[in-house]
Design goal:
Layout: E1 10-12, H1 28-42, E2 66-68
Antiparallel strand pairs: 1-2
Keywords: Hydrolase
GO biological process, one term: folic acid catabolic process
InterPro entries: Bact_exopeptidase_dim_dom, Peptidase_M20/M20A_hydrolases
């Protein structure tokens, strides 16, 4: 039996000025990458016939406020 599931995740970050308050910024792309690392580790624990793929659909630009997988 074949089945497919599609899920879209949206990560929100916070832009800030690099000279005045860099510690206040949050990169959405960091969250996207961390989720992808977790997905790669998950592959070790699913049945061999299962497939798990992801695609970054929005990388957010230079200082990512938004990212999507």
């Amino acid at each position: 039996m074949l089945a497919t599931n599609q899920v879209k995740y949206l990560f929100k970050g916070k832009s800030t000025h690099a000279a005045f308050s860099p510690h206040m910024g949050r990169s959405a792309l960091d969250g996207v990458e961390l989720m992808n690392v977790g997905a790669n580790f998950l592959r070790e624990h699913i049945i061999p016939e299962a497939r798990l793929h992801y695609a970054i659909t929005n990388a957010g630009g230079n200082a990512p406020k938004r990212g999507a997988v």
